[in-house]
Amino acid sequence: MKNRLPSISDNSVIVRNSSVLMSYWVSFSALGARAAYFVDRILRGAKLANLPIELPTRFELVINLKTAKALGLTILPSLLGRAEEVIQ
Fold first, then answer.
1. Comparing C-alpha atoms, which of 60, 61, 63, 59 is closest to residue 20?
2. Is residue 45 included in any domain, yes or no?
3. Is 42 a member of any domain?
4. pTM for the whole structure
């Protein structure tokens, strides 16, 4: 903020609690649900070698409008519409 540089983080908690402009990262709730699925399969006797490796499919975008205004930036409405959370 001191140097008026917008920054992007991989942690939405940082965006909520500081002057970071935005965050784009994996949805931890979606990861948790998939982890529960794999734990269930393992507990039912599935062999680890037979379980697939998966990449994340859900991501979260969090935008801090307070920081954008402080930096004199305008965030496009189309980008705001895609955000899971907009911090006023």
1. 63
2. yes
3. yes
4. 0.74
Q: Does residue 3 fall inside a structural domain? A: no
For the chain, how many structural domains are there in total? Answer: 1
Q: Could you list the residue range(s) of the whole structural domain that residue 25 is in? A: 8-87
* The pLDDT of residue 1: 62
Count CA atoms closer than 13 A to 6's CA, side-chain side.
17
Examine residue 67 and state whether it is found in any structural domain, yes or no: yes
The structure tokens 């940082």 sit at 14
Write the DSSP symbol of residue 31: H
pLDDT in tens, 28-80: 888 999 999 999 999 999 999 999 999 999 999 999 999 999 889 999 999 99
CA distances from 53 to 33, 50, 69, 86 (A): 15, 10, 41, 32
Tokens read off for 56: 């994340």
Sheet holding 8-9, edge to edge: 8-9, 22-26, 59-64, 85-87
